[in-house]
Design a protein that fits this description.
With 349 residues, this protein is an alpha+beta fold. It has 10 helices and 14 strands. The chain has helices at residues 7-14, 61-76, 97-107, 142-148, 151-162, 177-195, 202-210, 260-275, 296-303, 322-346; strands spanning 18-25, 28-39, 42-49, 83-88, 109-114, 117-123, 132-137, 166-170, 219-227, 230-239, 244-251, 279-281, 308-311, 316-319. The strands form 2 sheets. Strands 1-2-3-4-14-6-5 form a 7-stranded mixed β-sheet, sandwiched between helices. A 7-stranded mixed β-sheet has the order 8-9-10-11-12-7-13, sandwiched between helices. Helix 5 (151-162) crosses helix 8 (260-275). The longest helix is centred in the last third of the chain and has 25 residues, at 322-346. The relative contact order is 0.16.
Length: 349
């Protein structure tokens, strides 16, 4: 089960402007999130289905369009009438960028005559979930998992421990949790200033960490690496039956030579294995090794732990209201360009 399909994630999102719906289809329940907002003189809504439906990599264009159309028609019955599109993040894991890109090319613009409904399907102008990620299998022993890593990664893990870096795990029930979270959030601010990364408001992360998920066998933790009183780095992870996920991370500017980030990840990987997660998902990285890519360092860091790089096709929209969708799509492209190109250029990145 994909972690974003859990009730946990949907209930958490509902606190941040999303309403949640459940739609049954072919024996399984699809969770749908809807966000409504004002666009000029009218109110519109966007429906979003994360990591569903699941397909194998051999899915043909006709079958792909039919399944999205079938689901979209069922979803339209329960979401607000002003919903302009239903956005899907199909769960298809390609092993190469070329195969993924070929699939996207074939399915970028589709039209499906489905039960007297002419439905248009477009590849979204932006992605909701990162389309490329690294999955680390946790089925082997800890020694076997370590053996899959690059030798420098094993060395850095041992170096951090040898130099006295300590990793502490916190959740909402931990003593001094609020104080520890404040220190972690300071690392967020340092990371944002140093790397030009945008983060959510503080309450977003607190709500995530404070979510009561005990009945769903889900665990959200904050890991913090310290050395002699200095806070070096921190991460937030989510563990469930389907996988462990590295959601968010931040690091400071002091003692970076102690390689705290490596020990942080290794500690979380060990805990994910103990929890019973079959995989540890590093949740997003560049699609291939490219020294010119601005996030090349992130690619090297995440792939060095020995996982498998996979490529997903990104988001697809089934259009419900054509004119409104076209306007929204244009605005969405402009917003993406503003933050991803103009803002970074103005900041010299």
């Amino acid at each position: 089960m994909r972690f974003l399909q859990t009730n946990f994630w949907h209930e958490f999102k509902s606190k941040h402007g999303w309403k949640n719906y459940a739609v049954d289809s072919d024996g399984f329940s699809v969770r749908v999130m809807v966000r409504s907002f004002n666009a000029g003189i009218k109110k519109i809504s966007i429906a979003y289905v994360p990591m569903a439906p699941e397909f194998n990599t051999e899915i043909g264009t006709e079958a792909f369009a039919e399944k999205l159309s079938e689901l979209a028609l069922k979803i339209k019955e329960v979401v607000p009438e002003n919903t302009i599109c239903i956005r899907f993040d199909p769960a298809i894991d390609f092993e190469t960028c070329e195969n993924r890109d070929e699939f996207v090319k074939k399915n970028r613009h589709l039209k499906k005559d489905f039960k007297k409904n002419i439905l248009k399907i477009h590849r979204s102008s932006v992605n909701v979930q990162p389309p490329d990620t690294v999955l680390l299998p946790l089925s082997g022993t800890e020694e076997e998992i370590l053996a899959q890593m690059k030798s420098k990664w094993r060395y850095n893990i041992r170096l951090a421990a040898k130099k006295g870096v300590e990793v502490f795990k916190y959740n909402k029930n931990s003593e001094n949790f609020e104080a520890e979270f404040e220190e972690f959030y300071k690392l967020f601010m340092i990371t944002s200033e140093r790397d030009g990364v945008s983060f959510h408001a503080k309450d977003y992360y607190l709500d995530l960490l404070n979510k009561d998920s005990s009945q769903e066998n889900i665990e959200v933790n904050l890991y913090v690496a310290k050395h002699e009183g200095d806070y070096l780095a921190g991460i937030i992870t989510l563990f469930c039956n389907g996988e462990g996920v590295y959601l968010y991370g931040a690091s400071g500017n002091v003692k970076r030579n102690l390689m705290a980030a490596y020990l942080l990840q290794w500690t979380a990987i060990q805990d994910a294995k103990k929890f019973g997660c079959p995989y540890y998902d590093f949740y997003g990285c560049p699609p291939r090794e490219d020294p010119a890519h601005p996030m090349h360092g992130l690619f090297l860091f995440k792939t060095g732990f020995g996982g498998k790089l996979i490529h997903r096709p990104g988001s697809f929209d089934v259009i419900c209201r054509g004119f409104d969708y076209s306007m929204y799509r244009l605005l969405e492209k402009m917003r993406a360009w503003f933050f991803r190109v103009l803002v970074k250029k103005l900041k010299g990145r």
